[in-house]
Amino acid sequence: PKGVINDWRKFKLESEDRDSLSLSKKEILRQMSSPHRSFSKDDKHTRERFCRKMSMQEYELIHDEQEDESCLQKYRKRCMQDMHQRLSFGPKYGYVCELQNGEQFLEAIEKEHKNTTVIVHIYEDGIKGCDALNNSLTCLAAEYATVKFCKIKASNTGAGDRFSNDVLPTLLVYKGGELLSNFISISEQFNEEFFAVDVESFLNEYGLLPERELPALGNGNTDEQDVE
Length: 228
Prior knowledge:
Blueprint: H1 2-14, H2 23-32, H3 44-62, H4 65-87, E1 96-98, H5 102-110, E2 117-123, H6 130-143, E3 148-153, E4 170-175, E5 178-183, H7 196-205
Parallel strand pairs: 1-3, 2-3
Antiparallel strand pairs: 2-4, 4-5
């Protein structure tokens, strides 16, 4: 589409080192940054010459096959990042929040953004599987920043009788204040040793995790991450 092509051309020009550009190339960049430049009816001939000249100079400027692929990869990443930001709603976290009492537990669920998934791990020290699940959730929290990961000791919930050692570790999943899933003794779903990837696969089976966060653009190094 014409709009996409123009956006790509503008991105290619903006990727150039401004200080190294000649005055004529800087003028092309300025013109492309103002695509709605108007011309009078009497200036139709000038407009046609301007457009024709600009296209030829622009072609010479951006048509570099050796650097074109690298620039295209950067452009793809920027488009993907822009799309992701438009589709992402609610706050960002990236860590596991330690809840100290039942009041904080309720607030973490009821006062959260309606589109935010809240995953709460109820645990106790010394219970098999609790430490491994805490470590796994720490890893997943960094990968799924839009998900609010929390943990709280059963003895601090104010309802310790409901969370005896027999049902720990327990994982509760909420969204919009509603309980979506309740997994008791969740470590029994895994092997004796399990890791973040195992918990991730399990939660994905139930559709409880969003799409994985896209990597930040950083310094634009396209050798590390390729976008298909």
